[in-house]
Design brief:
By secondary structure, this protein is mainly beta. It has one domain: Methylamine Dehydrogenase, Chain H. It contains two helices and 17 strands. The protein has a four-stranded antiparallel sheet with strand order 4-5-8-9, with no helix packed on it. Strands 10-11-12-13 form a four-stranded antiparallel sheet, with no helix packed on it. The protein is globular, with a radius of gyration of 21 Å.
Length: 214
Amino acid sequence: MNFLRVGLLVTASLLISSLSLRAQSVAEENGSIFFTGADGVRKQLTDGGRDSAPVLAPDGKQVAFIRGTPGKTIATGAGDNEATELWLIGIDGSKPTLLIQGRDAQDVKQVVAGIGGADFSPDGKLLYFVCSAWATSGAVHVIDLATKKERFFTDGSSLEVVANGEYKGCLLIQKHKYFIGGGSYDWYWLLKPDGSEVGPVGEDTDNFRSTYAK
């Protein structure tokens, strides 16, 4: 038996496995979006210095990100906020697509300004984002990526889609609510994709993560 050859084959196999297990990633640097593939190669996807908060689609083929609009603002219940935009782009830098841009509206549920973050559904068909709305709370919206139709989803100041476990596809959203006897609180709640509440998670999500989001 040629042990040298066996050793080389094992080494090559381990190297291939290591490359395949290396996670793809996205990052923002000086207002530009970068994608790093499983092979470790880094590629710049955008330039212009106005982009932030990139998030990689579940299939690893597209990236959603926020684009700033310096000097352009929209009035919200929380004051004037930048008329930010939400974009989608391929990991090779192709097909940059404007999904939604800042807009004013009489109904605060339809206002889009100060987009603070976005997250994909586990199947990659929906993209949720949170933006400024009321004085005490933001608003969560959702975009159907097949039709590009967008709608108000619920009130909330932060969001995270549960990617794994029993509640996969549900959303962790921080909501501002009021006690019956007076006063208010900002707890995290678990919502189903149809918008209905599963129940309160608490002041933080640590216990939920360790129990359900594995």
